[in-house]
Amino acid sequence: MAANTRRRQIGGIGTAARVVLGIAFLLLGVTGGRVSVMHGQVGIGFEPIWVVLGLVGFPAVVLALQWLRARIAPTRLDATGPGSTALNMLVLAALLLTPWYAPPLAFTSVAALVFYGASMLLAALRGYSGCEVTATSNWILGRDDQVGCLVLSPVDDLERRLRGSSAAGPSDVARSKTAGPRHTSMNHVICSECGSDRPDELASGGAPTPCPVCGGTGITIQLSAVSEGVASFSGSLTMALRPSEPTRGWQHRWQLIQDDLARQLSLRTEPLSADSIGQARHELHSLFVQAYHLKDALISETGIPAKKIENAITNEPDLALVADLANLDKHGRLDKPPRSRDVPRLVDVQGVTGSGVTGWSLKLTIEHKGNQRDGLEIAQSAIASWHKVLSGWKLI
Question: Which domain does 373 fall in, by range?
Answer without folding.
Answer: 245-392
